[in-house]
Glycosyltransferase family 2 protein (Nocardioides marinquilinus), 984 residues
Amino acid sequence: MSSPSPHAGVAVVLVTHDGARWLPGVLAGLAEQDAVARVVAVDTGSLDASRDLVRGAFPDADLLELTSAVSFPGAVDAALAHLDALPPEQRPEWVWLLHDDARPAPGALAALLEAASDRPDVDVLGPKLREWPSLRRLLELGVTISGTGRRETGLETGEYDQGQHDERREVLAVNSAGMLARREVLAGLGGFDERLPMFGNDVDLGWRAAAAGHTTLVVPEAVVFHAEAAHRGLRRTALTGRHTHFQERRAALYTLLVNSRTAALPWRVLRLTLGTLVRMLGFVLLRSVGEALDDLAALVAVVGRPGAVRAGRRARREQARRLGSAPDTARVKALLPPPWVPYRHGLDFLADVTSAASQQAADIGERRRIAAAEADPSSLAAARLRAEQARRERDDDEEGELADTGAFARFVTNPVALALTAVVVVLLVGAGAAWGSVSGGALSPVPEGAGDWWSLHLDAWHELAGGTDVPAPPYVLPLALLASVVGTTAAVSALLVLSAPFALWGAFRFLRVTGRLVSTRGAPRVLLVGGATAYAVVPVVSGAWGNGRLGVVVAAALLPWLAHATLGFADPEPDRRRRAGWRVGLLLALVASFTPLVWVLAAVVVVLGLLVTLLLARSALASRTAWSPPLVALLVPVVVLLPWWLPALRAGAGDALLLEAGRVPAESLTSSGLLTGRLDVAYGAPDWVGWLLLGLAVVALVPRATRIPVTVCWLVALLAAGLAALLAPLSLTALTTTTPPGLAVLVVVVQGCLLTAAVLGGQGLARSRLNSLTRTVALGLAAVAAAVPVAGLVWAVTGDDALESDPAGVVPAYMEQRVEQSPARGVLVVTGSIADGLAYEVRRGDGVTLGEDEVLALTPEDAATTEAVRDLAARPTRDLVDRLGEDGVQWLLLPAPADGEVAARLDATSGLTQSGSDPGSRAWEVTRPLGDGVAGDGSSLRPVLLGVQGLAVLVALVLALPTLRAPRPPAPDETPDERTGRAS
């Protein structure tokens, strides 16, 4: 330490606690300062060589030895008391606080004192803090606190110091590591708050200083390197504990509550409570459950113990009275961050999640090639990788040159973009029948509002027909979520209209990735566009779209994304494989909610795949991360869909596990329809288009370069076809009829496999050396292949459909209005005749809507009700009419053509009064006392199952998301060079 300077009134207060790891560098940096008159070292019970290091570096230093129970504020108070005990002429004007892990750069103290000389009104000054040991990363240039308790530095995470913040400015607070403060001001403020033993005391002191009218200045010319040992968990004490985040959050909440205005305190508590819940959700998404619990514990520790907050507020009021002035709230408000800053952080977080999620879904081909190249740098794979990287760099340079021409110019010069845009336009035009309100075929009308779908999903008992405890189909939940944003009509319309473009996008991505897995050059772009287009129109050419098979349409749109996600099982990184399992599980659950047979097929593929691998390549399954992700993917849908399949089995509606979304009966599937991808003759495209695709998939087995992946596609297609053949003979009971299982999704899977095989085969053929004869054959095959997507697009525009924008109702409008106002009231609709047989249904609310149709179809027939309706039509009596009233039936309707014999008997029945009806139909109103309908309680297990479902979705979603931040590695023992500031 040099001799005293004109600024001899500076005392350094160095607080140490087991800091021998950093103290040599700190003491060396302190010895380089030119304006230190006295060093007061306060050691709080160190068990290492900290005290010996201080004595060896500064023999004349005042060393205060305290116990480990003393906090940082207590250590500073002890140093201030020691300085106050000195003779008046030896008491310093300034106190410079240093931590034992904060090394000052040469000239740091001189820069602070120079700034103090330039600004005599300043009472507290702070340096620029840079990270130790990186030395270049900025930590703080002053600090403030947001309304949600976030410590705001105004810096980006990991931002390097390039002089971009080198201007002196007033701030709310500066870090206590390197803080220079007037001794009298520091003592007048009462020092640091003892209730903030380790974290947050600097912000609290700065807030109190600003409220008392003092100015705090940050001086970027002064630099201090800070290791942040306590914050990073590199040093744990009884004061920091094992939960550093809890201590930091508790300090932030306490600081806000004790320093806020009394009038704003209730709003502050409410905001912090709600903000804590939002922060907890964010931490859960980051898979930091411990930090989420720490946030909750900190809130409870502060808000749940108001005594400490009241004592802190009382101390600040006493301080204001002692100083003789009211708190300067205007000064404090000007130094706090704007109120919109927390919302900006929230948007940034969502942007990071979205960006990372899109990046994790990128193809894995390059990562596998990089892994192979790193394993053997001299291999052919490494050479190919280097050549590919060089080619991509050239492409990037060309794209950079084109960037100057603008986005529009790049778009119009990109043939793939133009082709895909044209396809999307054609698909949107072809889906014109689905714009707006739509129903028909297998698609029931939608309810009035999303609340109806929510009730259907949440309720254990449904007041439909005679009442039922059959659970709602699982796809009601995603429909309710979507309808809560856009409405029920727009939700179904959007699914029908946008399904094909979404399938086009997913198929293009999947085919591009599979092509790159086969070859670094990937498939030719014309093959990608053609194959994606052919897949996008599969629901249309099969007839599923025209017949309103919403489940098949949605499943077809999601299957390429599901297949794309399964490629993550082959990722070389174990963490990515694990997350791929959860991601595939969520997508599989979503697809299975519309078409449950997809899960059955997935289980068959996974089990057989693992068995074959076990027999042929046992070493490939040596690691748990190789076989567990596919099993996790199968387990997730089982848990997520638990509120559906378990109550369905308990209610005797197990047939639901083999049906798809939509009205019953489902279409029967023929062997030719399975091969050609045709479900409905009336709305499907001509069979020759399907035969063309089948022939192309067979020819795709010829090229040797792609024979293995093409064979894999054929194996999956054969498994799907075999499952369809196995289930086709089954006959399921629904309503009073029978229906085949919902096999339509297996047709989509087979078509997707054949298309993938054809594209891969075309890729292999295109990359092969061809003579004149094979070139002619290849051109012929290309012409045949082009007919498949072209014919599909033509059929998408010209094909017929059963969708109606305004379906005709059976029930008269006045009855519908009355029962909508009183959902417990119903209309008994009896169709047919005594001679040919009668059928009936009870309409309640707004009629049978999407989702309710399946509940009614799977509800077992009530034999007593059926007998009562039969007797009512054949021998109506007053007792039967009374029973209608007890069940809440207000009207009896015989739609056109009404059976005259039945109508005549009902006309003469006491308790029935003729009512208005449409031509050809007859209606009566029940004049007997009406009961409360068919109310019931259902199973009390429903809330538990819904809770398990919500928790399962949350856990799977969190584990499927990408890792947004890597664990912080421990800082090495690295110190700055004494003269250059570089790591030594």
